[in-house]
Amino acid sequence: MKDNDDIISLDQFRNRKQEEKKRKTERIFFDHLVGVYAVVNPGKMVQVNLTDVSEEGLGIQVPYQSEKVWPTQMNDIAIRLYFSAENFMELVVDIKNTRPVIEGGSRYLRYGCAVKNDQRAFPAWSKFVSFLKAFSDVSERDTGNIGVGSI
């Protein structure tokens, strides 16, 4: 007789694989198509890495620097998502949790943030997150098997 711990749920396996694909797709999107910056002082921004998104929140990470602690406050932090060199969407977030991580041999601080839903950009943010979810469901990896040419 098999122990229940030995039973593998195909639904759980499928869901886990779909979640992994979603996160990988999001990372590619964030790393190559969207510039993400935190406004740290009036007139000054720093680049941050966007690690996760949901309608209610987002995850960011910054390189760990013991001599430069950021942020100095946990509420009302402006995060700008640049979709071109001149056009951005600004969200206001509150930091809900912080944890250190090591990724690729480098140390980071990762922040879990709640997006304030009373901001002007929130409806666009919500649609952006919906797009990412839909895109991850249908996206395919380009293997380079089709060349680009002229007609």
Largest sheet: 7 strands, antiparallel
Number of strands: 7
Strand ordering within the main sheet: 2-1-5-6-7-4-3
State the CATH architecture. Answer: Beta Barrel
The N- to C-terminal Cα distance equals 64 Å
Can you identify the CATH superfamily?
predicted glycosyltransferase like domains
Sheet-strand content, in percent, reads: 35-45%
Give me the secondary-structure category.
alpha+beta
For this structure, what is the CATH class? Answer: Mainly Beta
Write down the CATH topology: Thrombin, subunit H
Order of helices and strands: HEEEEEEEH
Based on the model shown, name its key terms.
151 residues; alpha+beta; Thrombin, subunit H; 7 strands; 36% strand
List the helices and strands and how they pair.
Layout (H helix, E strand, L loop, with lengths): L9 H24 L1 E7 L2 E4 L1 E5 L3 E7 L13 E6 L5 E16 L2 E10 L6 H17 L13
Antiparallel strand pairs: 1-2, 1-5, 3-4, 4-7, 5-6, 6-7
Helix pairs in contact: 1-2
Overview of this protein structure:
The chain has 151 residues and is α+β, with helices and mostly antiparallel strands. It has one domain: Beta Barrel (Thrombin, subunit H). The chain contains two helices and seven strands, in the order H-E-E-E-E-E-E-E-H. Strands 2-1-5-6-7-4-3 form a seven-stranded antiparallel sheet. A hairpin with a 2-residue loop joins strand 1 (35-41) and strand 2. Helix 1 packs across helix 2 (122-138). The longest helix has 24 residues, at 10-33. The termini are far apart.
